[in-house]
Amino acid sequence: MRGARTLQWSALAAAVALAATACGGGSDSGGSSASGKPEGYVSMFNGEPQHPLMPSDTNEKFGGYVIDALFTGLVAYDQKGGLINENAESVDSKDNKTWTVKLKKGWKFHDGTEVTAKSYVDAWNWMANVKNKQANSYWFGDIKGYEDVHPEKGDPKKDSMEGLKVVDDHTFTIELTDAVPYFEYKLGYKTFAPLPKSFYKDPKGFGQKPVGNGPYKFEKWTHNKLVQVKAVGSYKGSNKAKNKGIQFKNYSKVESAYQDALSGNLDLVDGVGPKDLPKRKADFGDRALDVPYAGTQSIVPTVYSKPFKDVDPKVLQGLSMGIDRKTITKTVLQGTRVPSTAFTPPQVRGYKKLDSDVLTYNPKKAKKLVKEGGGVPGNKIWIQYNADGGHKEWVTAVCNSITKSTGVQCVGDSKPDFQTDLNARQDNKVKGMYRGGWLADYPLNINFMQDLYKTGASTNYGRFSDKKVDELFEKGDHADSLEASVKDYQEAEKELAKKMPAIPLWDYAANIVHGEGIDGVKVGYDGNVLVTDITVK
Amino acid sequence: MGRYVARRLLQMIPVFIGATLLIFCMMYALPGDPVAALFGEKAPDPAQVAAIKHQLGLDLPLWQQYWNYLTGLFQGDFGTQIATQRPVADVISQAFPVTIRLTLFAFVFTVVAGILLGLISGLRADKAFDRVVLFFTLLLISVPSFVLGYFFQYLFAFQLGWTTPTVQNSEDLGQLLLPAIVLAGLSLAYVTRLTRTSVAENLRADYIRTAIAKGLPRRRVVGIHLLRNSLIPVVTFLGTDVGALMAGAVVTEGIFNVHGVGNTIFEALNRREGSTVVGIATLIVIVYLVASLLVDLLYAVLDPRIRYD
């Protein structure tokens, strides 16, 4: 039988090739039992955290949800952008330079050890150290001695910052290089978390199996499937969990999560795909929520580009007034955004509606202003955006709106993905404007201006530079109190409206749909669902 | 025969090196810096970026990076992901079994259903059954897979309630049935049509007439003489299709939330995780190579006139 022999050879060849590549390796998907959800838990849409689960390495939403559930820092923000003390009894400073932190007693990590001043100081020193490669390390840049552990080049000189001092078990002081009146606000960011002693034994393992001090305790992380956390009964913070636990389930598309929510296999989805936006109210009724939060989208002119080199701000004001924000948010964006009323969103402290009409649609005045300002060279502008983020539709709409009302030609400049888009911004290669988005790091108006419009600021990709604005920022940074600082920045914002370093378009709203089994779905200032408040019926 | 197989296996080595080098260079040429991407929209901290790059060896020249990657590969080290800091081998070994299950399922479905349908309609060319099959396969070919995916989801999960809309547990074959059918849809249509044409054509061939004339039972005529000769084009198609099924499942995997290779490579590409992309792409290249070797060997099984000596 010739045929049979050839068949044997075929099988052998396949076996050899497959063995050589060691294919079909062990399948360790873990937790292979049925997908059941423990009683009283809430399951919600999430994605695979992009970094190890470390407070100082997490800066994206998926990991952020888990970190916020596992860790509680010194202070937290309420829904209106105010500060509340959590692990801190008090955070005080007389000169805004040296801050004294007193901790509440009796707080414990989930492994039973106590949260002390040392838990904070040691953790921050570790996180700031350049050798430990934490993405959020720059947050510690205000602290005195940061350069010692995080030099611009080479190895760190010391392994601790001299600005951090433990006074006793429940007190420590933070000395800053310069006074920062709003430092207390920064402390609410997730990277300023404490770490337990056990962390230092195996930092790498900790990132896969973190031990926190927050409202939930880590249970399991099955990669590509889910992260599960369990409510802690003895938790002492104000955001004690009202449910028994959370399952953060991993979806690669919001559309499939939507389908699961619709069929009752998933409790909550925060994010609705374009396909489902028009029918979310019909599908979920009053369980489809749109909650505005502190994030803005704008189009930012670059000062080096041809259309906007030495441009008269009047032209930019004109372009801004030529955009029909109301109609676009209602139609193209399906009510997922709210037209901007200032450079800052209403959910942050210090927000004030702009006392000017530059953000109001007025095609006549728009045309007039553009003309008065001398127009745009070539009468053509570009808006750069990344094609993988669903921006094409609104960019086109904004462009049409501008062209219609001002006569300036406007085209979208599409980059294949966010990486390419960002690269062009960083290398000063934007052709005209780019799509800018900013989400609050902390709910303060300062956060929406300083990083974006100060000369040489890290995220100032438009390369905007204005003396008067810088002066006002500077003044605010050296104010005596938080109130004064916020006020100075409000002044600066008025100046921004005259100079137009960006054209604010709209603020984000979180689009949430949830099942009948849960209640109490609320959204924080940052657009994240407050998972601790969810109750299970 | 043995020498032929050995030669083909040896030929895989340069193809393997060439493929990895090409993909490696392509990843390198793509705009965007994976380390800078760790900082999201914010401007990256240069000191931190430098430290991370140094530790991962990303500050070395391209050829050195490639050399390090290759030598690592021969020691079974696929590298480490930049953002998650997980070994790429881990990531792959989590995604591959899922995809293999899905692909095998889809493949078996394609082969069994496709050949069976093709055979029947080929034997009854231009009868009612044949017309119906031709119509439905045309439909399958022209409808994009995501439409089919959402339609099946709507029909089977929401209207009939037979299954959950997405795959909750990728080890449960019952749940994989729906995505497997959607995935197999297009190949199924091709296989059916290929088999049908080939069968209908060979049915008129001299050797079939001879076989019937010498009084062989119909089962033997169809099963051995007809089918074996008719399957050559089908096998060619199936061979390349295995690779396409594995790598091309991004859309289907997305709709049914299956976390397989397609999704993993897509995400890695977006985040510029070079070592992950190269690792997975290389494995897929090898699957292709093995499949095409198998196809070539199967030719000899199917058609005794073909010899490899």
Automatic annotation (TrEMBL), chain A:
<dbReference type="GO" id="GO:1904680">
    <property type="term" value="F:peptide transmembrane transporter activity"/>
</dbReference>
<dbReference type="Pfam" id="PF00496">
    <property type="entry name" value="SBP_bac_5"/>
</dbReference>
<dbReference type="InterPro" id="IPR000914">
    <property type="entry name" value="SBP_5_dom"/>
</dbReference>
<feature type="domain" description="Solute-binding protein family 5">
    <location>
        <begin position="87"/>
        <end position="458"/>
    </location>
</feature>
<dbReference type="GO" id="GO:0043190">
    <property type="term" value="C:ATP-binding cassette (ABC) transporter complex"/>
</dbReference>
<dbReference type="GO" id="GO:0015833">
    <property type="term" value="P:peptide transport"/>
</dbReference>
<protein>
    <submittedName>
        <fullName>Peptide ABC transporter substrate-binding protein</fullName>
    </submittedName>
</protein>
<feature type="signal peptide">
    <location>
        <begin position="1"/>
        <end position="19"/>
    </location>
</feature>
<keyword id="KW-0732">Signal</keyword>
<dbReference type="GO" id="GO:0042597">
    <property type="term" value="C:periplasmic space"/>
</dbReference>
<dbReference type="InterPro" id="IPR030678">
    <property type="entry name" value="Peptide/Ni-bd"/>
</dbReference>
<dbReference type="InterPro" id="IPR039424">
    <property type="entry name" value="SBP_5"/>
</dbReference>
Automatic annotation (TrEMBL), chain B:
<feature type="transmembrane region" description="Helical">
    <location>
        <begin position="12"/>
        <end position="30"/>
    </location>
</feature>
<protein>
    <submittedName>
        <fullName>ABC transporter permease</fullName>
    </submittedName>
</protein>
<keyword id="KW-0812">Transmembrane</keyword>
<keyword id="KW-1003">Cell membrane</keyword>
<keyword id="KW-0472">Membrane</keyword>
<dbReference type="InterPro" id="IPR035906">
    <property type="entry name" value="MetI-like_sf"/>
</dbReference>
<feature type="transmembrane region" description="Helical">
    <location>
        <begin position="276"/>
        <end position="302"/>
    </location>
</feature>
<feature type="transmembrane region" description="Helical">
    <location>
        <begin position="100"/>
        <end position="120"/>
    </location>
</feature>
<dbReference type="InterPro" id="IPR045621">
    <property type="entry name" value="BPD_transp_1_N"/>
</dbReference>
<feature type="transmembrane region" description="Helical">
    <location>
        <begin position="176"/>
        <end position="194"/>
    </location>
</feature>
<feature type="domain" description="ABC transmembrane type-1">
    <location>
        <begin position="96"/>
        <end position="299"/>
    </location>
</feature>
<feature type="transmembrane region" description="Helical">
    <location>
        <begin position="234"/>
        <end position="256"/>
    </location>
</feature>
<dbReference type="InterPro" id="IPR000515">
    <property type="entry name" value="MetI-like"/>
</dbReference>
<feature type="transmembrane region" description="Helical">
    <location>
        <begin position="132"/>
        <end position="156"/>
    </location>
</feature>
<keyword id="KW-0813">Transport</keyword>
<dbReference type="GO" id="GO:0005886">
    <property type="term" value="C:plasma membrane"/>
</dbReference>
<comment type="similarity">
    <text>Belongs to the binding-protein-dependent transport system permease family.</text>
</comment>
<dbReference type="GO" id="GO:0055085">
    <property type="term" value="P:transmembrane transport"/>
</dbReference>
<keyword id="KW-1133">Transmembrane helix</keyword>
<dbReference type="Pfam" id="PF00528">
    <property type="entry name" value="BPD_transp_1"/>
</dbReference>
<dbReference type="Pfam" id="PF19300">
    <property type="entry name" value="BPD_transp_1_N"/>
</dbReference>
